[in-house]
User: Fold this.
Amino acid sequence: QDQLMESGGGSVQAGGSLRLSCAASGDIYTSNCMAWFRQVPGKGREGVGYITSVGTIRYDSSVQGRFTITKDKSKKTLYLQMNSLKLEDTAIYYCAAHDKAVCRRRQDLFNTWGQGTQVTVAS
Assistant:
């Protein structure tokens, strides 16, 4: 069964770093598109960035230069390295995957989601 499970969330001071992990089971790791989204209460999910099966990576402009998406094939794990964290990065972070040809930061494209992990950035 295809599943995604995030870990690594927590509380950190502004300017600090966290690394989120997303462990994949089943064949989902080989999906064409894997992505990170985030959501704050009262708002929709925002696409943070994605990575394709051939290694193309794109980020939202709000995290460009601060966040890095990587994959470890041997561990079937997707990572989100978050540096220089800001108060506005506080959110629940989700990983997601789909196997469609087009990879975009659009949540409607994704059919497999993790349960989310909370990231809180404090001043």
Summary: The mean pLDDT is 95. The longest strand covers residues 18-25. Residues 4 and 66 are 24 Å apart (CA to CA).
